[in-house]
Every structure is written in C-alpha cells, then in structure tokens.
Amino acid sequence: MESARDIFSYRKYWASRLTPAPVLPMTRAEMEQLGWDECDVILVTGDAYVDHPSFGMALVGRMLEAQGFRVGIVSQPDWRSADAFKALGRPKLFFGITAGNMDSMVNRYTADRKIRSDDAYTAGGEPGKRPDHAVVVYAQRAREAYNDVPVVIGGIEASLRRIAHFDYWSDTVRRSILFDAKADLLVYGNAERQVAEIAHRLAGGEAIENLTDIRGTAFARREIPDGWQVLDQTNMDTPASNVVRFSPKATQAHTVVRLPAYEDVKNDRVLYAHASRTMHLETNPGNARALVQRHGDRELWLNPPPIPLTTKELDRVYELPYTRLPHPAYGDARIPAYEMIRFSVNIMRGCFGGCTFCSITEHEGRIIQSRSEESVVREIETLRDSVPGFTGVVSDVGGPTANMYRIACKSREIEAACRKPSCVYPDICQNLNTDHSALIRLYRRVRAIPGVKKVLVASGVRYDLASRSPQYVKELVTHHVGGYLKIAPEHTEPGPLSKMMKPGIGAYDRFKQLFEMYSKQAGKEQYLIPYFIAAHPGTTDTDMLQLALWLKKHGFRADQVQTFLPSPMATATAMYHSGKNPLHKVTPASEEVTVPKGLKMRRLHKAFLRYHDSANWPVLRATLKRMGRADLIGPGRHQLIPAWQPAGTSDMAMAAKGKRFLTQHTGLPPAGNDRPLRGAATRPRNTGAKRRRAPR
C-alpha cells in the first residue's frame, strides 16, 4: 500500500500563532473574545456540539485548528432559512457540512418508518432539531448564505450515500448525495487526511474545482480525462474471485471502473445489485481503483479510499486539546449520546468483519487503525483529572469492535491485494493474525492507572475471533465485564447467517463455554446478552420460528429487539432492494434472496423474537397454525406459546397491531381471552442494553 503524507506535516496556516480556542466558537461574540474577525472554516453539524473526539465535528475541528486554521461550529441550525448559516459570517475557505454522527434518516425514523420520540445527539434528547436528509438541506442553505464559498460534505450520511443508493424511507433509488446537495466536493470515510489537504490547498490559492486527485473524495465532472483506461464493470466480475485479474498493477493508478448509470440502477434491480458488488470490491486502499457513475449529463467520480492513519497520527488526533464536555451554551442540559461515551476511550478504528447489514466497513474501512498504549493511558489520565463526575470507572475501552486492536493481516502484500469483503467469514482467514496479546497488555496497563477502579468493555466483542485466544477471554471475563456482556450472533439459522456473513451458532456456543468457565473460575455470576435481528434478507418465517424456539430453550426474553433497517449502501440493503445476492456474481439468473418486506411480515418476525410478550400471542398462534405447527401451541416446555390468552391482552394486541394485520396475514380470526399465564421462566432475562454506536 502506498504511503501518505503525515496530516500534521503541513506548514501551519498563519492563525497558528493564536492561542487554541478553549472551545470552538458557535457565536460571533465567542469569535470576538478570541480576537477573530472571520473563520477560515465553518463546520455545520446536525448534532449538538460536544468537544469530544467521539463527535465528528469536534475531531475534525480540532484537527484543523492544530493545522493553524480558525474553525467555527454551526450546530443544529434552523434550516428553514439561510440566516443561521450567516451567524459566524463568511468562511474564508469553505463550509464543511455533516448530518452528525448518524445518518439523519436513521436518527429520525425507526425501522418501521415511524418518527422517533427523542434524539440522543441533542440537548435534552429533544427530537426535531434536524431535517430529513440533513446534509442536502444544510448544504443548500450554506450555498444560499454565501454562494461563492466552496461547500464540502462529509460524515456518515454523505459517506454512505456517495453513489446512487437505495433509500429505504422513500423506497426509491436516489442519485449520489453530491448532486442533491449541490456540493463542490464529497469526503467519504474518516475525514482527517482529506480535510487537511483540502484546507491547505485552498489556503494556498487552489480552486476547489481543481482538487480532483485527493483520495477519499468524490466530485462531478463532464467527461473522463484523457489518459484514463475505462473498464465497464459488467465485463469484469469474476465469481468467487479474490483479485480482479485483468488489470495489471502498473496501470491501476490510471484505471477507472464504470458503474451502471444512475438512471439504469434506478430502473433495473439486477444492475443495482451488480453496482453494489463492484463498489464493495473497490474498497481496499491497497488496490482500489477510481469509480465513475453517470448521472444525467455529468459523471460522478470517486477516487480510491484514503490511506489509513498511522498510529502516530491517530494518537495525535485523539490527544488534541478537547474539553471533553458539551459546549457551555447547553448549560446543564443532558445530551444522552455524550452521557453514553463520557468516560469511554476509543482505542481503534475500522472493522474487518464485513457484516452485510453494518455500515462500519463502508465508512471506516476494514484495515484496523490502532492507537498506542501510551496514548490510551494519557487519555484515561486526562479523563480522570479533568472530566467532572469521574468515579474511577472507565465505561468502555473499545471502538467499532472490542477486540480487533492491533489485529491485521500477516502480510502487507497480501493485505494490499485482497478483495475479500471479510477476514472472518466463512471462517477466519489463515492470513489473519489473531493474537490478542497486545490487547491483553493494554487492559492490564490501564487497570493499573492510579485512580482507576474499574475498566469495562462495553463495545461488542467479536466472539468467533475471541475464541481463538482463550487467554483473552479469561482476561475479559475476569476483569472487564460488569455482570453482562453483549455479543451479536444475530441469528441461529444458516440461511440468514449466510446473507449476514456471520458465523454459525456453533461459534457462539464455543465462546459461551469459555465465558462460563472463566466466570466460574473468577467466582463471578455473569451472563451473555445475545443480540438478534428480525426480518433480515434471507430470513423465512421458519427461520424466525427456529430462532424463537432457541431463545425459549435457553431462557432468553429480549426486551429490546432489532428489526433489519436497510441503511444506504450496505450489501444487505442491495439484497433487500434487488432480491439478489451481491456476495456472488450477479446476473438475472443468479441466486434469488428471500426478503421479508412489508410492515406485516416485518412485525411478525419481530413478534417471534418477543415470543414471551402476550400481546404477540394471537398473531403467533395464528401463524403457527398456518405453518402447520399447531403442536407448538400449549403449556409444555417444548411449546412456544400457550393456547390461552391473559385477560385483556388480546384486545390490547389487536389495538397495537391492528385487526387487519392479523386477519390479512394469517387468514384466521384472533384467539379469545382466557386465564392468565402461570409459572414464568426463572432464567436471567436479556436486559436489552443498547449496542454502542460507531464513533462516526
């Protein structure tokens, strides 16, 4: 893989002579206190501004400040006019636009397309502080405010919508967000390397339209420049191929892969799946080529992904002078997302799991970027000494996953050539170094920091990987589990698991044996909390029934369950939209994927996960009869639900789910009322602890 310039090696901009801001300004008054007459860069975000490295705009803002630029923050502006975008004046270099730490549609709507009642990234959890498709709206308002200022969009929303993509909420294929936002440049993935170069080149007098050679960016152009070899993706796909063989490495730098045009993928679901497959094959920074996709009379051009940050760069990014507090403007208001990560430390980035429903790999990449032990220790010491309310408990030492710290391919050459979407599916790659010793050393070192009483691991553990290192599992369960440990088998049946790229349930069983053995040795009563997904592509009613029976057999009663949400650009979303499997070569005759669509079926699959909820019994009872499994209705331990209904709950269920849902989906009338259930299960319940979100 080629090397990249250190992001802190640029000659600092003139404003570096100024004292770093105690907090990046959100008002003109704050700018005046700092002695600023203008901002060089204004960052617009859909989140409340928390000066913490887990919040994207704080991280990018502090990084630019370290380069010598004056950075202002416009947080959750009133988007109904351009006035809020003029609050800090005209930025000298550019507007940087993001929806925040989450896609705005995922943030605002549930998997059933209902508006959420709160917003974890807003002061007081108040909903409604950001618009739908926030990047598009903010970018357009910034353009209205100052039409001659370059607009650069980025963050998770822009990153996952960088090509023509299926939008679940409108049930349509939308064009690249670059065009809807009318932006000059789109930054995808972690943004530090790209944003640093953009800022310095604009400050050096280059025009935004000339910044066409920066990795991790996308832009519009009228035609393909001379000297580029254009490869049509429909002629290049090789089934089960790890390396696309027709393009010699010597010409890779001047090769662009053409995806089907937006108009074509919008109207042809097979082409959509085909484009998704090709895009995912071109995500390794070591061998990815530029992509181009026609949108009307313009070309969308995507440069290859950015080179991952080195440990030295990552350390410095996370040790910039953050206050690690919300902006003082919020007073005592509680920001739920901040409360969750307030005493946590991020030790790495990226994920090589490749789960098809997850967006981490599409955004952060599958090459793990790890911090040094010294940097992590320094951050915990800073947290201990400066963050109010610290009691000696570090709530999480992790990241997108808990246990991929310093794990990588054994060979740099193999890593740079690989096009596999996962290093751990269908089994752990023989070229992957699964040694957890570096993470064990880190755990032991942070536990020994004076003033630290407990270090927890709240990030999700990749349990199949952990099982390769029993010593790690022992260290984890002996010292870093607070009674419950969340892991995500996601399902028990091979059909849906193959579409998720998740290991079989046997991997869970192996980890469970180690977990229980070492918990017993430590004299601790601890429990695993497994997470499961309902209605994922590839899932049938029978699959959900088998999962429900497994849950009952093992005594799990899930209080919070996850219904598959087709996020933009995910492989599973391509399955959902197209009914094809882009994990293999896609043709009109290739594998068809069963897709649970429609509110009725999705709610039924969710009801199977919550088999213990009496409100779900009428629909489950009718469904079991339809499936010819009435033998599972009754009082026996081997049966799923009882034949009777607690008084009043049948009416409640019908009111909640709708009589039409029950009768239309099953063709059977609802069950009558009966006596209440006696003899509840005595095994520990699933607490429903929330899964930690990726930092950005």
Structure description:
This protein is α/β, with parallel strands linked by helices. Among the domains are: about 1-215, Rossmann fold, CATH 3.40.50.280; about 345-590 and about 600-610, tm_1862 like domain (pyruvate-formate lyase- activating enzyme). It has 25 helices and 21 strands. A 10-stranded mixed sheet has the order 2-1-3-4-7-8-12-11-10-9, with helices on both faces. Strands 19-20-21 form a 3-stranded parallel sheet. Strand 20, helix 20 and strand 21 form a beta-alpha-beta unit. Helix 2 (about 55-65) crosses helix 7 (about 190-205). It is globular. The two termini are about 25 Å apart. Mean pLDDT is about 90; it is low at about 240-250 and about 655-695.
Q: How many β strands by DSSP?
A: 21
Overall CATH architecture of the domain at 343-589 and 599-612: Alpha-Beta Horseshoe
| Beta content | 5-15%
Give the CATH superfamily of the domain at 343-589 and 599-612: tm_1862 like domain
Q: Just give the CATH class of the domain at 343-589 and 599-612.
A: Alpha Beta
Mean pLDDT: 91
| Biggest β-sheet strands, sense, barrel | 10 strands, mixed
Taken from the alpha-carbon principal axes, the silhouette is globular
Return the CATH topology of the domain at 343-589 and 599-612: pyruvate-formate lyase- activating enzyme
Class based on secondary structure composition and strand pairing: alpha/beta
- Our Rg estimate from Cα atoms comes to 26 Å
Uncertain ranges: 238-251, 653-696
How far apart lie the N and C ends? 25 Å
> Can you count the helices?
25
Largest sheet: spatial strand order: 2-1-3-4-7-8-12-11-10-9
